[in-house]
Amino acid sequence: MSPYGISSLGNGLSKWLSLNAGAFYALSTLLNRMVIWHYPGEEVNAGRIGLTIVIAGMLGAVISGIWLDRSKTYKETTLVVYIMTLVGMVVYTFTLNLGHLWVVFITAGTMGFFMTGYLPLGFEFAVELTYPESEGISSGLLNISAQVFGIIFTISQGQIIDNYGTKPGNIFLCVFLTLGAALTAFIKADLRRQKANKETLEN
Predict the structure, then answer these.
(1) Is the confidence at residue 180, as pLDDT, over 80?
(2) Cα(76)–Cα(136) distance, rounded to whole angstroms?
(3) All domains of the chain in start order, with CATH
């Protein structure tokens, strides 16, 4: 791997994507526990909420991919979706305990739409910034980093939920999503792959 690729991954690229993905893994793993905490006996609906997150996320991934392909606004789109993920997480955090299960369906689905929809955006942006490095190398390193954060977040949030409740546990994830959004805002949008493709077409 070239010094540029290593520098890009080390200077925040892996962090902002991995924080989002890690938060998603933790939330998905602990979703059943959080729902049952506030809605005892609703195991079936807890599974349905998880399904809602998955379906909404699939839709978000498709829409964000189409938008990115047409607009080529990598940093702007990534940042907006990241902020909306944070907003969705905050709303989910403070509405989970309202006692209305239908609200949880809506907030969880909205959060899943942006949180899962962000993943293909993040990987594509990473490939742009690390070009001409192999897409497999950059995606592989980012995926490993995301898995590590997912393990850390899952264990940490689980302990917080057990000791203090679901709200502090979700606020824990909100803090790291805020950090990830801030890191994204400071990344320079050097679209190296787009520049290389443009030069090739011109030549």
Answers:
(1) yes
(2) 24
(3) 12-194 (1.20.1250.20)
DSSP track, the chain = --HHHHHHIIIIIHHHHHHHHHHHHHHHHHHHHHHHHHSTT-HHHHHHHHHHHHHHHHHHHHHHHHHHHHH--HHHHHHHHHHHHHHHHHHHHHHTTSS-HHHHHHHHHHHHHHHHHHHHHHHHHHHHHHTTS-HHHHHHHHHHHHHHHHHHHHHHHHHHHHHH-HHHHHHHHHHHHHHHHHHHHTS----HHHHHHHHHHH-
Q: Is the dihedral of CA 185, 187, 191, 193 positive or negative?
A: negative
pLDDT at 3 over 70: no
With left for phi above 0 and alpha for psi between -120 and 50, is residue 165 left, alpha or beta? left
- pLDDT range class, residue 156, cuts 50, 70, 90: very high
Contact 19, 176 (CB under 8 A): yes
